[in-house]
Write a structure and sequence with these properties.
Length: 510
């Protein structure tokens, strides 16, 4: 008779699965709460201490950590000396191990959980049994997921349990225990950049393809998901998000998180196309759309206020991929849901200043780069006016709006803005003057340009950017400063009557 060991925290599907195993000729061994659940269901089961001849002890910390358990799991059936050793000590082989682990993740997500409570939910015996079973998968079926119960019973019944199936289950075990240990390691680690970097993620789902059709892709969420993530959004209407949708929507959320005022952000290819603010969400939309009514075609829109019918009607008139907002009025939803392929998403916006200072990971060939998020707060009281001309209060307000936006533009980044509205954006050019030229050329045709300011994500390496901006109508510039040629830019600003402000904060975005 084959023997199965069952010890589970998640008891969903346990009783019918165990009953099927008994019907298939398995002798069941179990522990603690799992044993009680099976016994109460009148399923024949042997308590673990009858196998080990040793009682559970230390409040359940020690119950399966015993040679009579692990030898039964680890013995190689193809080695006579292994089987002889089992016989010598009267140890029966264990052919199937069903274990899922103490709920450490769920425990640390509880409000006000103590470290003592978290530590008591670190499973030791469970991972040990699983790893033993997974190591010996050629002879032992290791099962970690209740979702696999049905296929396991089906294959045992049909006699189709092959080595490929066994290996898949073993791989799933090691993936799970690795993620489990990584979560514990991160919980206990107080070093920002530890010697070994463990990053637990849970699969969100397969994607149709990656950036291009020839690239396969999948999405993964943080093991401890956050409500500001696009992967946690509720999709009220439309199909699932694509790889590019997710990245563009993530960019939109990062931008709109900068603002507590009523704001609308439009995004295309991870760069802002337009940003607008207003007294109403409709006014904010009008300004964002007017900022760039061409690039928004096929783009993403994020709003940090409820979408009303008037704003929905205007958005309905153009082709958009995604609209993200905290909510939609019933009338707005009805208007927008008339478009079959338009995705409508809700997230608890605004979440200004709620994005935590966690590490961001970027892949490179053969490794990853890790850095803190750029969450520095731009505070005008810390800025330095370096020109003779002083900026007006209106210009300073526009500078602050622009500085919050420019850090989300691909470098070299230049952004022209006025009164809560972007007018022109120069993104990702190999040199800064080209970005200046592009941004100003886009902005000059927009209403309000005569009051516009120009923001740069990094210092000007020479005075040409200041000169070009001044010659084309810009009267105030905000930039980090820090170049060995800063004085050249200051002198040029003074020569041309431009207000020049240094922030001290660079915002490269590669």
């Amino acid at each position: 008779m084959s023997r199965a060991l069952l010890s589970v925290s998640d008891k969903s599907g346990l009783v019918p699965f165990a009953q099927k195993l008994v019907e298939l000729g398995y002798e069941l061994v179990s522990t603690g709460g799992t044993y009680r659940t099976l016994a109460e269901a009148k399923i024949p089961v042997i308590p673990i201490d009858e196998v080990t001849n040793f009682p559970e002890m230390l409040d359940g910390r020690v119950k399966t950590l015993h040679p009579r358990v692990h030898a039964g799991i680890l013995a190689r059936r193809d080695l006579p000396e292994h089987m002889e050793k089992l016989a010598e000590f009267d140890i029966k082989p264990i052919d199937l191990v069903v274990v899922n682990l103490y709920p450490f993740k769920e425990t640390i997500q509880k409000p006000a959980v103590t470290q003592e409570q978290a530590i008591e939910n670190i499973d030791i015996g469970g991972p040990s049994m699983l790893r033993s079973a997974a190591k010996n998968f050629t002879a032992v079926l290791p099962i970690i997921d209740p979702k696999d119960y049905e296929i396991v019973i089906e294959k045992i019944s049909e006699g189709t349990v092959d080595q490929n199936f066994r290996q898949r289950l073993a791989a799933k075990v090691f993936q799970h225990t690795a993620a489990y240990d990584a979560l514990i390691a991160n919980y206990l680690t107080d070093s920002e950049f530890p010697a070994s970097l463990t990053l637990p993620y849970d699969k969100f789902g397969d994607l149709r393809y990656g950036e291009n059709a020839q690239q396969q892709a999948a999405a993964y969420t943080d093991a401890l998901p956050e409500n500001y993530s696009i992967l946690q959004a509720d999709i009220l209407h439309g199909k699932q998000l694509s790889y590019n949708n997710i990245r563009d929507a993530d960019a939109a959320l990062r931008i709109i998180a900068e603002y507590s005022e009523t704001t609308v952000v439009t995004v295309k290819h991870m760069n802002p196309a337009g940003i607008g603010q207003g007294q109403t969400v409709e006014e904010a939309w009008d300004k964002a759309f007017a900022a760039d009514d061409v690039s928004i075609f096929g783009g993403i829109v994020a709003l940090n206020r409820e979408v009303d019918a008037q704003t929905a009607a205007k958005m309905h008139s153009i082709f958009l991929e995604i609209i993200i907002a905290p909510s939609f009025t019933p009338e707005a939803y009805e208007i927008l849901a008339a478009k079959k392929n338009l995705r409508l998403l809700t997230l608890p916006l605004p979440f200004t200043n709620q994005i935590p200072q966690e590490l961001e990971v970027t892949s490179v060939l053969g490794g990853v780069l890790v850095q803190e998020r750029d969450l520095v707060a731009e505070l005008p009281e810390n800025w330095q006016v370096v020109s003779k001309v002083q900026p007006t209060s209106e210009q300073l307000a526009s500078m602050l709006f622009a500085q919050k936006a420019v850090k989300h533009v691909k470098s070299n980044a230049i952004l022209v803005a006025q009164n809560g509205q972007t007018l022109g954006i120069g993104a990702g050019q190999p040199n800064r003057i080209d970005s200046v030229v592009y941004a100003i050329n886009k902005a000059q045709a927009k209403a309000g340009f005569e009051n516009a300011v120009l923001a740069s994500d990094a210092f000007f390496p020479m005075a040409d950017s200041v000169e070009y901006a001044a010659q084309h109508g810009i009267q105030a510039i905000v930039e980090p400063g820090g170049s060995i040629k800063d004085q050249d830019s200051i002198d040029k600003a003074n020569e041309l009557g431009v207000a020049l402000v240094f922030t001290g904060n660079r915002h490269f975005k590669h």
